[in-house]
Amino acid sequence: HGYNAIALDSRAHGKSEGQFCSFGVNEKKDITALIDYLSKNENLNHFGVWGQSLGGAIGLQAMGYDKRIKFGVIESTFSDFKTIVNDYFDLHAGFSFSPFSNYLVNRAGEIAEFDPNDAMPIKYCKSINQPILVVHGNEDKRINIKYGRANFSAIPSKHKEFIQIDSANHSNVWKVGGETYFNRVLKFLDDQYISKKSLSN
Questions:
Q1: d(Cα 138, Cα 160) in Å, to the nearest integer?
Q2: How many whole angstroms separate alpha carbon 77 and alpha carbon 173?
Q3: Any idea of the CA torsion for 108, 150, 169, 164, to the nearest 10 degrees?
Q4: How far apart are CA 35 and CA 32, in angstroms?
Q5: What are the helix (H) ranges across the chain?
Q6: 64/50 Cα distance (integer angstroms)
Q7: Is-contact 42 102, C-beta < 8 A?
Q8: Which entry of 57, 70, 82, 131 is 20 to 30 Å from 150 by CA?
Q9: Which residues on neighbouring strands pair with residue 163, listed in sequence order?
Q10: What does the alpha-carbon distance between residue 64 and residue 125 come to, in Å, rounded to a whole number?
Q11: CA distance 131 to 129
C-alpha cells in the first residue's frame, strides 16, 4: 500500500538485546531512538505506530512521550501494568491478591531497573492529541475491553475512534475483523497521508 514499515523486536524479545522488558518505560525511549535514526539516515519525517497488546502499551506511551509520532493504531492493550498483572494472577491462579501481585511487580522493577508506576499507558494517553484508533475485542479474557475504553476516554485528541471487534479475543482481532477491519485501518492511514499533503501544500 505504499507505506514504509518497520517491524521491530522490543528489548528482550526476538533477536533484540537486553535481558528485561520494562513494559513501555524504556521501550518508549527505544521508539524515540528509532525515529532519530530514521530521520537522520532515511530522511523520513512522518511517523506512526501500530501495536498490539504489549506493543499497544508501548505505542500509547511513545505517542504521549514523542510528538513526532503523528498517529497510532493501538490494539488490545492495558491501562496500568500493576492492574493487569493482578488480573493475570486471577486468570491463571483463580484468585487475586493485589498486595502480593504488587510486590512481585515492584520486585520486577528493582531487578530490571524501571519504575513500575511509570508503566501506565493511561497516564500517557492524557498527552495524546494525535489521530488514533483504539481497537479491542469484546471477548478478550486476558485484557478486558474496559481497559481499552478507559485508555480511549483519557485521550483528548479530537481525531480518535474506538473500534470494537465483536467475538474477537486477545489474539485474533485481525482474523475476526478480517478485510473489513483492515480496510478501516487503511482508510485511517490514508487520511493521515492526505492530511500531511494538505499541510505541506
A1: 19
A2: 12
A3: -160
A4: 5
A5: 27-41, 54-65, 81-93, 98-112, 121-125, 145-154, 173-200
A6: 14
A7: no
A8: 70
A9: 135
A10: 6
A11: 7
- Answer yes or no: are the C-beta atoms of 116 and 106 closer than 8 Å: yes
Task: Please write the tens of the pLDDT for every residue from 110-167.
Answer: 999 999 999 999 999 999 999 999 999 999 999 999 999 999 999 999 999 999 999 9
- Per the CB < 8 A criterion, the answer to whether 70 and 131 are in contact is yes
Give the pLDDT confidence of 159-201 residue by residue, as tens digits.
999 999 999 999 999 999 999 999 999 999 999 887 665 444 3
At position 33, the amino acid (one-letter code) is A
∠ at Cα 59 (155, 36), nearest 5°? 115
Sequence-distant (6+) residues with CB within 8 A of 139 are 167, 168, 169
Contacts with 185 (C-beta within 8 Å, 6 or more apart), sequence order = 50, 73, 133
C-alpha to C-alpha distance for 133 and 135, rounded to whole angstroms: 6
Q: What is the rounded CA–CA span in Å between residue 88 and residue 101?
A: 9
Q: What residues form DSSP beta bridges with 135?
A: 75, 163
Cβ(44)–Cβ(4) below 8 Å: yes
Report residue 147 CA to chain centroid gap.
Answer: 12
Four-residue CA torsion sign, 181, 163, 2, 196: positive
